[in-house]
Write a structure and sequence with these properties.
Elements lengths: L3 E6 L3 H13 L3 E7 L5 H8 L3 E3 L2 H5 L6 E4 L6 H10 L3 E4 L7 H13 L4 E3 L7 H11 L6 E9 L6 H6 L3 H17 L3 E9 L4 H5 L5 E8 L4 E7 L7 E8 L3 E4 L9 E3 L2 E3 L7 H4 L1 H16 L8 H20 L3 E2 L2
Parallel strand pairs: 1-2, 1-4, 2-3, 4-5, 5-6, 7-10
Antiparallel strand pairs: 7-11, 8-9, 8-15, 9-10, 11-12, 13-14
Length: 333
């Protein structure tokens, strides 16, 4: 079996998830090195059986056996790392956000095209089996012409304030997944965004210059209308639901639960809470996106989520921020 040889750059929470998935669950891949300044990196590498820990990215990129890099480092490092990897002819998987500005994302796209390397972006929800099933129902015409899309996306708790200050705002950090999912499911570009936002969870989030609650209206090029509701805190857990209604019917998905047991008594019907957060909810999706990236390299196929997809979602996030600030609908050309 030909294996894709990879390295992981950045071993935060998601970097470790990708490493473990590639090592234990993607037999077509082999991770030969990890790079992270954390002193605990060597212990983690030993634990999962990765043979090398590199302090300098340049050292591992110069390895001719290396096929691709998985970039999970902070967003401000992405452009430089992608440029270096592309110059060495390495294919690239990069976590979102790809970058914070349109100009930098366009630079990244042009760099990877110039060096003829693949670039896949970490919009993991596209690989969730339920979301993919809804998208296929729409694509196959089973609901007819799409009329209305509804997405609910609420976190169980807000991130630390220090993270919020550097995240680029809720639309860039959190809602960007929903923007990508909206395009993915409807199969059409968004041409208008209108936002109402508020601080309803924590005043410190507002003091940091962000919001924690939003309702976002979308208009698609194909005439479909959409609405996304976001909250940084749902006390009952991670709330991830989607519904699309069309001329022939409707498709929708609810939350995932750790079990399907229900207790019935004189007080009513009782169930468990939804899976608590994204690491639990999208466990399989994270693994499947790594499989898809490796498959695209091994079989020389197009990647599933491209730089252009990241560019479109970022345009929507920036339009949402502009709409929030101006209290007006914003057109996306």
């Amino acid at each position: 079996m030909n294996k894709t040889i990879l390295t992981i750059i950045g071993l935060g929470r998601i970097g470790k998830v990708h490493t473990e998935n590639l090592v234990y669950r993607v037999p077509e891949a082999e991770v030969i090195a990890v790079t992270d300044p954390d002193p605990a990196t060597a212990a983690f590498a030993k634990q999962v059986g990765v043979p090398f820990v590199q302090d300098e990215v340049d050292n591992i990129l110069a390895n001719e056996a290396l096929d691709a890099v998985i970039i999970c480092s902070p967003t401000p490092t992405h452009l430089n790392l992608i440029e270096k990897a592309a110059q060495h002819g390495k294919h690239i998987f990069c976590e979102k956000p790809l970058e914070m500005t349109i100009d930098k994302i366009e630079q990244i796209i042009n760099i990877t095209k110039k060096h003829e390397v693949k670039l896949q972006v970490g919009f993991n929800r596209r690989f969730d089996a339920n979301f993919r099933r809804v998208q296929q129902q729409v694509k196959n015409g089973h609901i007819g012409e799409p009329h209305i899309l509804k997405i609910t996306s609420r976190d169980p708790a807000p991130p630390p304030i220090e993270y919020i200050k550097s995240s680029g705002g809720m639309f860039m950090d959190m809602t960007v997944h929903d923007f990508d999912m909206a395009r993915f499911v409807v199969g059409s570009e968004v041409v208008e965004v209108f936002v109402k936002g508020a601080v309803r969870v924590d005043e410190a989030i507002g003091e940091a210059g962000d919001i924690d609650t939003a309702v976002i209206s979308l208009k698609f090029a194909n005439g479909c209308l959409g609405v996304i509701d976001n909250s940084r805190q749902a006390v009952y857990g991670y709330d991830q639901r989607l519904e699309i209604f069309g001329s022939k019917g409707m498709s929708r998905i609810g939350n995932n639960y750790s079990d399907t047991e229900m207790l019935y008594d004189k007080y009513g019907r009782h169930t468990g809470l939804p899976l608590h957060f994204f690491m639990e909810r999208y466990t399989e999706a994270y693994c499947e996106e790594m499989r898809a990236f490796v498959r695209a390299i091994n079989q020389n196929e197009p990647v599933t989520v491209s730089g252009e997809d990241a560019l479109a979602a970022t345009r929507m996030a920036l339009a949402a921020q502009q709409s929030l600030e101006t209290n007006l609908p914003v057109q996306i050309s």
